[in-house]
Amino acid sequence: MNIEQIPDYYQSIRSLQEKYATQIDIHLGMEVEYYPSQWDTIREYRKTLDYIILGQHNLTIDKDSVYEFENKDQVELYVKCLEEACQHYMCDYIAHPDVFLWKYPRIDESVLKAAEKIADISRFYDIPLELNCGTGVRLGKKEYLDGERYAYPTRAFFEIFAKKKCPIIIGLDVHDPKQFLTDQNLDRALSVVEGLDLNYVQDIDLVGEAKKRKLKFF
Fold first, then answer.
1. Number of other residues whose CB lies within 10 A of the CB of residue 169
2. Percent over 70 (pLDDT), the chain
3. What is the Cα–Cα distance from 170 to 4, expressed in whole angstroms?
4. Please, what are the domains in the chain?
5. Is the pLDDT assigned to residue 2 strictly greater than 90?
6. Does the pTM of the predicted model rise above 0.70?
7. How is residue 87 annotated by DSSP?
8. Residues in Cβ contact with 159 at an 8 Å cutoff, skipping those fewer than 6 apart
9. Could you tell me which of 68, 129, 139 has the C-alpha nearest to residue 97?
C-alpha cells in the first residue's frame, strides 16, 4: 500500500466496521516503520489506528534495506530501531524480527546477540514477536555460507525466544488472498521451530493492549 492510499484504507475499514458492527469485530491496523524523522506521522498513526505492527524493512526511508544486510553494524542499527520504537510504546507486536537474515551470509555471533537483545526487548515491554509465514518461507530455502535454510524465520532466533519465554504470534503475512487457500507457508514456518517450547499467545486482546500502550506513548 502506497502512502497515498492510506486515507482510502482508513475509510474502507471504518465503513466495514459500521456495516458489520453486529456480526463481526473489525479492527483498523497497519504495519508501520519506525523513522524518528517522521514522528508527526507516527503520532497520527498511533492516535488513529486500533493497533500497530512494527515491521522494520529499512533503517531510513527507502534506504538501507534490511534485505541487503551483510555486516554486524547494520544488524545493531536494526535492533536499535526496534528498541526505540518499543521504548516509545508505538507498536503492539514486532513482525518478522529476523527478516534481516534474508541476505546475511551466516548465523554468527552478531546474529545471536541480536536475537538475545530482541528477546529482552520483547520481555521488558511485553511485546509479542511474530513467527512469520510470508516471503521468507514462501520462496523456498536459500543457500548460505553455513548451509541451506529458509531466509526467515530461523531456528537459531526462535531457540532464544523459546529459552526466554517471549510471547509469540503466528503471522501469515498474506499479500495475495489466494495464499489463504493453502497451509504450505504455515507448515514450512512451523517446521523451522518444530520441537521448541515456544510461548504462543493464544487469545491476545491486541486492541485492548494497544489502548494501554497508547496511554504511555510519547
1. 19
2. 100
3. 29
4. 28-215 (3.20.20.140)
5. no
6. yes
7. H
8. 196
9. 129
